[in-house]
Amino acid sequence: MSALLIICDMSKKTIKLNRRVILENGYELVNPTISYHTYGTLNADNSNVVWVCHALTANSDVMDWWAGLFGDNQLFNPDEHYIVCANILGSHYGTTSPLSLDESTGEPYYHNFPNITVRDMVQLHILLADYLGIGQIDLLIGGSIGGHQAIEWAIIQSERIVQLCSIASSAIVSPWVLALNQSQRLAIANDSSWKESSPRAGVEGMKVARSIALLSYRNQKAYNLTQSESDMDIIYPERAASYQDYQGYKLSQRFNAYSYWHLSKAMDSHNVARGRESLEKALSEITARVLLLSMEDDILFPLSDQEEIRKHLPHSEHYIVPTIYGHDGFLIETEKIALRLNEFLARKKTLICSLRN
Fold first, then answer.
1. Active-site residue flag, 284
2. One of 144, 269, 294, 316 is an active-site residue; which one?
3. pLDDT tens, 229-238?
4. Are residues 102 and 15 in the same domain?
């Protein structure tokens, strides 16, 4: 595969592939770009790769949004590991997205961007791994839709993935999640600017979509603990309302409605059983050591989603991470997650030592 490195800014790089990439729906992307971050150095025996699959509106700078798990002196650090995180297809942080130039028209894709799937995202990850000369990935890790990507990749290339950690994720997206995602897209579609072809189209609707999403990222317990009013005499409590407004505004300053729309549709597509006979048959392709982590009181991807995976991967490890933050706990409870991961990784080292002896 030939690729041109077109941007190199410290640890962030962007490559433009000199090829057509056929998506799962048959659409051909012409010369797509992939933006990614790397930290550390690949060792001689290719055994120190930690590849991160990021969540919906995150980006490839894992040191920024997963600090506490990744960073200097953290569990995963550049001194010991070669850390890679690629911006996912459809996200506008450098990888081909609705804001990218469609080479067939010379104009941005905007509404003409094709529907994509989690498998399409993984296809670009694989192309990047090939470009970087990565033979095996010691640990593939992701939370939420990042976990979806990680599971898919571990099925598609079981020989490449040594260890897999899926956090707050699932093997198949439930009707509950599909309904939540559709409600968010309805909010965008009802923005009068959505039909426009401009980078800010649908942004007010996206603010509402984010507000809807937050209700599933947290839960009633989290809101009651963090957004309660201290003044019991106030007639119209405002703290929870202002929190919703602020989170919508904050996202609108860094994201766009086209990407939000298409990434939520990509999440809808996640079903590892599609085209593979059954869920059991699909998951049986995974040969990696597997750690599954559930967030306590996660109402987006509840405990039952990870239990379903565990049922078909009897040798996997599964733990519940205590948190008041529900689904968002996978971004917040880094110390607890690091503890479980460190224990999991240590058991691999113990196994290797015992086999050598």
1. no
2. 144
3. 888 888 898 9
4. yes
Name the E strands within the chain: 3-9, 12-17, 20-22, 28-30, 33-39, 49-53, 82-86, 101-102, 107-108, 139-143, 163-167, 289-295, 317-321
Query: Is there a single domain that holds both residue 96 and residue 241?
Result: no
Q: Is 298 a catalytic residue?
A: yes
Average pLDDT over residues 108-130: 98
Which residues on adjacent β-strands are paired with residue 294? Answer: 320
Q: What is the pLDDT of residue 268?
A: 98
Residue 186 CB contacts under 8 Å (≥ 6 apart), including other chains: none
pTM of the model: 0.94
227 contacts 240 by C-beta, under 8 angstroms: yes
Which of these is catalytic: 138, 169, 327, 328? 327
Q: Provide the CATH number for the domain around residue 217.
A: 1.10.1740.110
**Which of 266, 297, 314 corresponds to the end of one domain?**
266
Question: Which whole number is the average pLDDT over 324-341?
Answer: 98
Residue 320 Cα distances to 29, 66, 289, 293, angstroms: 40, 19, 18, 6
- pLDDT of 249-298, one tens digit each? 999 999 999 999 999 999 999 999 999 999 999 999 999 999 999 999 99
| 64 in active site | no
Q: Which domain holds residue 117?
A: 3-173+271-356
User: Would you state the pLDDT for residue 148?
Assistant: 98
Beta bridge partners of 163: 289
Q: Are residues 54 and 69 in the same domain?
A: yes
Number of structural domains found in the chain: 2
| From 298, 305, 316, 328, the catalytic residue | 298
